[in-house]
Amino acid sequence: MKSCKLTCFFINLFRFFKNVYGRDDISKELENRLLILETQVQQLKEMVLSLASGREPVTSREVDDQTQVYDAMRGLTVQRHATIQMVLDGATQAEMAERFQISEEAVKGRLYAIRKILGQELGVNITNTSTAMKKFREVIDTMSDEKYLRVAGLPKDWHTNWTEEDREENPKLYKK
Known about the structure:
mainly alpha
């Protein structure tokens, strides 16, 4: 909890400086760095709790991977985040194509782009969508709903609560 309070304090401080000096680019970059720091503090907390409960702690490589997955997530479009949500909930490519009003080939293209972006961030070639989704799931599960919304531009439960009205509420997700 203290890390969140500290992060919120710094975010508000930088917003104050932005208002005084009018430098939006600086405060946004610092806000992004603080979000990364908040994630790292949360991961450290989980490692300590894991050790205290007698379980094996996650390795530092896993923590590094999670930070890099988080960085990759920040670089994804809203459409790609929506695609990830659908894959994580077990949707088929046909279901995704119907939802987004695109071809199945376009869905495959999105999945390829997601794997490529994640692979570049991790420095590996990810050829399997389920491998990429496992990494995304590990990071998404540690994020608060608010933090996920800031990163993805969608609520965590967008797919499970989807209705036809979403086509009007989020037109950028759908082909016209």
